[in-house]
Amino acid sequence: MIFINPKTDFAFKKIFGSEQSKDILISFLNSILYDSNPTIKDLQILNPYLVPKIRGLKDTYLDVKAKITGEKTLIIEMQVLNLEGFEKGILYNAAKAYST
Hints:
This protein is α+β, with helices and mostly antiparallel strands. It is built from three helices and five strands.
């Protein structure tokens, strides 16, 4: 049997960003954010497409966007390589998500 690498964009989104794998994302987030305490009990997977409100700004697709307990919205980006400008991209996506 051959498995797809979970670090590829397609596989990561399928594993963590789909309604069918919500339990996996909840477990992952509780492990990373809350030291494995079951703080997040449920979440809502949101559309990862960030529509620009100003003409001329670029479209962005997040790897995973979800709303968790307390009406907090999380944006999750998977990055394997250390690419130049990655930090600027993260700030841009965070600002865009916050403003929309």
